[in-house]
Amino acid sequence: MATTDKAAVTAGTAAPDGAHAQGVFPPFDSTTFAPQLIWLALIFGALYLLMSRVALPRVERILENRRARIAGDLDEASAMQHRAQAASLAYDKTLADAKGKAQTLAQQMRDQLAADSDAKRKALEADLNARLVAAEASISQTKAQAMTHVGEIAAQAASDIVRHITGKPADEQAIARAMAATKTV
Description:
- α2 packs across α3.
- The longest helix has 134 residues, at 33-166.
- This protein has one domain (37-184).
- It has helices at 2-11, 33-166, 172-184.
- The chain is mainly α.
- It contains 3 helices and no strands.
């Protein structure tokens, strides 16, 4: 064992002056229980006072501030949500009003354009009817005037045909008698 003690001494792990030889671990020594209990009570009391007067009030203030901030943020978020809902309702109402006004305006424009179109169509029809009546009157006048000259044209054509076929001028009185005979038939 001597070699082991020397090795232990050189390594620095041996207890000085044979402390292990006394045998009892100091915290478990029954002769020191009373002072240890007194120190335990004093230190516990000091820590209790320190915690109750300093640390716990700080923690309580921090927690209270956090609760207040969270409650304030929740109240603010709720208020913003109500404002957003109110704004959404106002937007929806404004949009519905605008759509209604747009539909009313579009219907008014359609009605006005239809009325304008009808008025223009009626004016155009009246103008065309007046032109048609004037054209028919002009045609009948031209036809009546042309009918007055038909006899002259027919006599001239008959004279030209006879001259072309016979090579001699036609008898004007014979052509006039033939024309008079066809008028009575």
